[in-house]
Amino acid sequence: MAHGGGAAADVMACKQEEEEEVENKAAWLLGIKTLKIQPYHLPPLGPLDVKVRIKALGICGSDVHHFKTMRCASFVVKKPMVIGHECAGIIEDVGSEVKSLAVGDRVALEPGISCRRCNLCKEGRYNLCPEMKFFGSPPTNGSLANKVVHPANLCFKLPDNVSLEEGAMCEPLSVGVHACRRAQIGPETNVLIMGAGPIGLITLLASRAFGAPRVVIVDVDDRRLSIAKNLGADEIIHVSTNIQDVDEEVIKIQNAMGSGIDVSFDCVGYNKTMTTALNATQSGGKVCLIGLALTEMTVPLTPSAAREVDVIGIFRYRNTWPLCIEFLKTGKIDVKPLITHRFRFSQEEVEQAFETSAGGGNAIKVMFNL
């Protein structure tokens, strides 16, 4: 009889798994501009994992690149992939060895799982891990799904006064926070930001939180510049796309700052934006390249090097979630104005959301509420 009970339990467990597979759906990228909500079978819950019901997810520029071209920089989508990585949700199940989180906890998810064994991981620079498995970066499935399984140590509990949408915004905010750490932004650092897109605006908020006394932001789009002004930029400058205008625009930018530019963040990554940043930054300053629009650029490195202008790059982030959550909890950073569009998780709305984000215009952060 005991044997029969065991078999019945197995059947029940099997049935439950099948039901769950039917229940758990995800947005799969099947081809250029082709997204389909389909079943997503989750891996088993490991002892150090948690199962999270995703409640909020934002669309990132890299998601849009994958959607439009099936690639982002050197990452190419070669087989159907679940998309998305800026997310937060509620814990539904915890692995046998998880002590830090409980069912019902609201969490923000850090989307990259590093190997923890290579030299870069051991040095703490895990964002550069060559074995990184990152949500929605091929070939790793992402998190625009009802549920995902993720390591507990990459899920960060949200305080009561921080919403799930704000939790999802910790991912883009992490880019700005990591950039500010790399460039050593502080109360004596005057900051220039090239580009008032989502990451430029996030970098503006992060620079302020790190104490930057003066921030000037430039863009080709007046609508985005007015948003930057509303978010607290000291000066906004409309620039052209013509590289011939660099010298004239540099003077305008330096006059707007009113004193030396200590750090410039290029949140675009074109020849013109990088040339402007290098020329505008004062001797001994830094230029941090965040935007990666071009794989190769032609820029005036020699004159900049002769003025000891340091060029630094960033890739994603590391150890940023606790600080991002603290900034949101204390109100030092308010990301809510960046969320411009909201969609539900249905076939029609997933398509609409990606078209809205890909269209640019007045869309800054497009958010799913699941």
UniProtKB/TrEMBL annotation:
Q: Does the keyword NAD apply?
A: yes
Q: Which residues form a coiled coil?
A: none
Q: GO MF annotations for this entry?
A: oxidoreductase activity, acting on the CH-OH group of donors, NAD or NADP as acceptor; zinc ion binding
Please name the InterPro entries in this protein's record.
ADH-like_C, ADH-like_N, ADH_Zn_CS, ER, GroES-like_sf, NAD(P)-bd_dom_sf, SDH-like
Which keywords annotate this record? Metal-binding, NAD, Oxidoreductase, Zinc
Cofactors (names): Zn(2+)
Pfam families found in the cross-reference section: ADH_N (PF08240), ADH_zinc_N (PF00107)
The family database entries (SMART domains) matched by this protein are listed as:
PKS_ER (SM00829)
Please list the residue ranges annotated as the Enoyl reductase (ER) domain.
31-368
Q: SUPFAM superfamilies annotated for this entry?
A: GroES-like, NAD(P)-binding Rossmann-fold domains
State the similarity comment.
Belongs to the zinc-containing alcohol dehydrogenase family.
Question: Which protein is depicted?
Answer: Enoyl reductase (ER) domain-containing protein
User: Which organism's genome codes for this protein?
Assistant: Populus trichocarpa (Western balsam poplar)
